[in-house]
Prior knowledge:
- 2 copies of one chain form a homodimer.
- The first copy, chain A, is α/β, with parallel strands linked by helices.
- Helices cover 39% and strands 26% of the residues of chain A.
- Chain A has helices at residues 24-34, 49-60, 80-88, 96-108, 156-174, 192-203, 235-253, 265-276, 290-296, 314-319, 325-331, 336-350, 397-416; strands spanning 5-11, 38-45, 65-69, 92-94, 122-124, 128-130, 139-144, 147-152, 179-188, 211-220, 223-232, 257-259, 280-284, 305-311, 354-360, 375-381, 386-392.
- Chain A has a 6-stranded mixed beta sheet with strand order 2-1-3-8-7-6, with helices on both faces. A 5-stranded mixed beta sheet of chain A has the order 14-13-15-16-17, with helices on both faces. The first copy, chain A, has a 4-stranded antiparallel beta sheet with strand order 10-11-9-12.
- In chain A, a hairpin with a 2-residue loop joins β7 (139-144) and β8 (147-152).
- In chain A, α1 runs parallel beside α5 (156-174) and α8 packs parallel to α13 (397-416).
- Chain A is elongated.
- Chain A starts with a strand and ends with a helix.
- Chains A and B meet through α1, β2, α2, α6 and β10 of A and α1, β2, α2, α9 and β14 of B.
Amino acid sequence: MSAPTAEIIAVGSELLTPHRLDTNSLFLTSRLNDAGVRVIGKCVVGDDVRALEDRMRAALARVDILIVTGGLGPTADDITRDAVASVLGRSLFENAETLAAIRERFARRRVPMPEINRRQAMVPESAIVLPNPNGTAPGLMIEDGGRLVVLLPGPPGELQPMFEACVFPRLRARAPSAVLRRRVIRIAGRAESEVDQVAEPIYSALSVSRVDVETTILAAAGQIELHLTGSGGDADEIDRVLQAGVDRLSSALAPAVVSVDGRRIEEVVGAALVARGWKLAAAESCTGGLLLECLTEIPGSSAWVAGGVVAYANEVKTGVLGVPAGMIDAHGAVSEPVATAMVDGVRTKLGAEVGVAITGIAGPSGGTAEKPVGTVVIAVRTPDRHVVKAFAFAGDRRTIRIRSVATALDLVRRLTG
Amino acid sequence: MSAPTAEIIAVGSELLTPHRLDTNSLFLTSRLNDAGVRVIGKCVVGDDVRALEDRMRAALARVDILIVTGGLGPTADDITRDAVASVLGRSLFENAETLAAIRERFARRRVPMPEINRRQAMVPESAIVLPNPNGTAPGLMIEDGGRLVVLLPGPPGELQPMFEACVFPRLRARAPSAVLRRRVIRIAGRAESEVDQVAEPIYSALSVSRVDVETTILAAAGQIELHLTGSGGDADEIDRVLQAGVDRLSSALAPAVVSVDGRRIEEVVGAALVARGWKLAAAESCTGGLLLECLTEIPGSSAWVAGGVVAYANEVKTGVLGVPAGMIDAHGAVSEPVATAMVDGVRTKLGAEVGVAITGIAGPSGGTAEKPVGTVVIAVRTPDRHVVKAFAFAGDRRTIRIRSVATALDLVRRLTG
Lengths: 417, 417
């Protein structure tokens, strides 16, 4: 049995400006997945009743469950009630109970109810009214030919409790046995296309009779994620199938596999350092603090990060890290000898067991024919191992910095794991 | 003449999980608005060619401009090229020039091109190929019966430069007379509600007969932006009205105004330092490199950033920055004397004219009754001025770190401007 499907439509012209994103869909997706429902699309429309009707009709032709958020306020801009009535061919009636609840809410604040708030008591034929203890706009839920249409208010503080109290139980009751599980494999130090070539034949063999497995490959910030999403009727069976997939992919891709439990590479590195009782110190030139920032973003990182030196100017490389000035003159600041001297300097200076150094040309200027923008040298030293390597990263300044940090982290992971 | 309309479709199953949002649409909306184009809808679809085709067909029935982001990678998941070819009824051809560019990109990294990357050279009939200097996936632009279809790669570092270089000029050429202008006032060191109280009476008086001015206040990352968006038929008139608004708001809000020309506070600080011939050094504890990372993100920052020390462990504060251990024992690492000793240490050590030091408790652990999580002390010293101040920031670890950096930057701005 395949998982029921849903789409989410967010209504509001403010969500079509450069300043706002619809974040309700993240909460809704998470809870829909928990109820075994797969989200196959989401969209944003402005306060335009015709546009909303179009989107709703298109979505209802595709999915089992349609969730519309926003547009339930009292003003003329609030068009969701009208759109749903028109699309489902139902009349709107004023619901006495709902109107009483809205009046009471104003009365409690000792304010007379403005006449326009009456609009919020309009309910389509045979809709179920979802009470809103946190605002005036009630939600609505309508069963229509086997499909479920749910209208929720836009503010997260109203939407979330209403969803939990009224919608989630109904979804569970509709599909008590639909289950959807997700596993994530994180990978570092390989190109997306390489990973895909290795993984493709494995994941095409994953789906079995009663479990449907969808796979996605995701590349960002110098790291790759493989997502396996399993759906079907039996949670244990899905978990078994996904575990088998994770095992096969991990052994095919090791040692590039960072984690299979959702942990980021920074956390994996931190755990390895804690296990060995080591602390890390970093000397950063072109990445300007980005590596240290990523590491110290992890709560509790003070247990395994000593700190570091951002040696942006050459005088800091010589004065603070003790890199010989003659070495910079002879080899250039972006060179293996300088990276090694930086890593040794920062380890000694900060008394850390593990040192990392990054020196490179992030651009846009500073490149030469011999060392173009994107040339980055990374050195890592632990008490028993040492590596220094030159890389040629593509991309703009930001991308080069991110790739440098991702690569340095992966070298530390491989030398300490 | 009414403004041309656009829709944005983001492609990628990962954007339908509870963990990811399509943020490209914010950049695209902003720039489309700049080109006088109104965004009337946006949506997200998974890696499903049929679903994407449906959405594209529906959108093309509504709008003048359709932008599709993502799904241009080399793998079988990457379905955007196929979908657009099918929807527009055009065949796909391998483009020799594009293939050569992709091969060359791999060659520069001394890696053979995997066979699957050939897919990225497939181009629909009479499409314009948009070169991608920052990745392998080229973009595509297709004129189809008066409508414009634009396909862009998903990574923001590839999408944004491509849009600026190839798409924006084309949009301007299409709609030379629809005018929509935006001015941004950046503000630091004031609360959103304070700014709003000052600004409200001013911007309600801004709209005049033939110019419609929309105002938005935006608070994020310890900084506030006031956006004034003017629309109408005459660019000069809109510019005059917006300039008058910017002038009135600036004088009401100075000295909290960071810039009225779009420059970020880091850039404003950099320009002030360059003007004085000063360099900056930072000593960071709880922010772990975030301040230095923000500063060095600016191209050319090597002209005014010397570097710094991330003194995460107390031993680094004493050993590298020369903070007396007894001072830490007596006052705690988060104290005005220690912040002052840190700023003096880093200035001396790195030979920089301007020093900044941040020491605090970012949480989630480490707080005490006397110094709860969010307690942060910041010191700034220039050749002629010195300030040290304790703050109590609200929020989680990430928020506290961001607010600390924003506040430190604002102190530097006020002491050097």
